């Protein structure tokens, strides 16, 4: 029965039913949501151009809005993990032979804390301010990832195909390139802006090839984000169709991702990924705590 319910939920999240389920779930959490809105108030003014761009188009470049020191710290924390992966310490993710998740061992061992730069980066006021302005309340930090993509000489699959993210009804992701992404050989994150993606809102297929997408939209209208290491951007991936990691032989891409959702989560809460060290303020604790 549990497997059946999970499957039904999986399908429901990909249909117009999902927003209604979310609304019903939020009605059950009104006191907690009121607190999240109250704690967000200092972050909501003045409104940022980045948040408005996300609301309008589904994406924004955010490099200049972030703390340069935090970007440098993130890069410094990621490089030893990449070196270990290159040395054979990383295994391909299940179902994704073209990429590896470099934080999974830290999560499993309970080593990922709010003191780690890969976590602290997502919790900096500049990031939380933009995300809170999009949601109108403090979000929940769903996960942080370091993903190492490389060529695997196999047909394109899963996230290399066009898709939306269904972690929740609204999913906002912060991305940072930690290696240079100079062109198509480096597997750039590629997306179709929100207004165009809205024209192909629902599909029975979670992932679509270029040919399948072309029956609804023109893939030539997509945007491939390129730039040097430490290029940062935010995308509402539940709205914008996107794909990436189409890495050519001899190339690689290291990408940081912080995923934010609004509470309460429609899927069951997983085991916490991030351990608090004890000096977090109320805002950070709320962002890391389900409603």
Commentary on this structure:
The chain has 291 residues and is an alpha+beta fold. The protein has one domain: Sandwich (Jelly Rolls), CATH 2.60.120. Helix content is 35%, strand content 19%. It has helices at residues 2-12, 17-27, 30-40, 49-57, 68-89, 104-108, 117-123, 125-135, 194-197, 210-213, 282-287; strands at residues 59-61, 92-93, 96-101, 140-150, 162-163, 171-177, 190-191, 207-208, 223-224, 232-236, 242-243, 252-261. The strands form three sheets. A seven-stranded antiparallel β-sheet has the order 1-10-6-12-4-3-2. A three-stranded antiparallel β-sheet has the order 9-7-11, with no helix packed on it. α4 crosses α8 and α5 (68-89) runs antiparallel to α7 (117-123). The chain is globular. 37% of the residues are buried.
User: What is the rounded Rg?
Assistant: 18 Å
Poorly predicted residue ranges? none
Rounded mean pLDDT score:
92
End-to-end Cα distance: 26 Å
Structural class: alpha+beta
Instruction: Provide the number of structural domains.
Output: 1
Summarize the structure.
It comes from Sphingomonas corticis. With 291 residues, this protein is an alpha+beta fold.
